[in-house]
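Quick note —
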Amino acid sequence: MPLIPTEALPYFENMIYLPMILVILERDHETFEKGPFKLKGPYIKLIEGAKKYVRTELQETTIYLRRNDMKVIRNETDALFTEYVFINGGYEDRRRYLNVRLRNRTEELLGMYFAMVEK
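Predicted structure written out below.
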């Protein structure tokens, strides 16, 4: 039996990406609020809509991990990699993610959430 069930991996990764996306959206919201933009409303509406979707998914992810006694801990970071520890029922699985991959996937997910708002 694998340490991390295949069906749980997306939830573990959500706990990596979704908080990052929320931080980015919060900063962007603040930038648009304070920035010299003539028409802030559409941008802020887009950001707020995306935050709503991200928060909902983060809440569902948190509930899933809690119910299944799982945790994600951010461990060491260097110039190239960030290590995360996935804990499942007392077992630890350490995974290293390339920082460039983390950035690219975060950007991809951000685009996905913006597209959801536009629908």
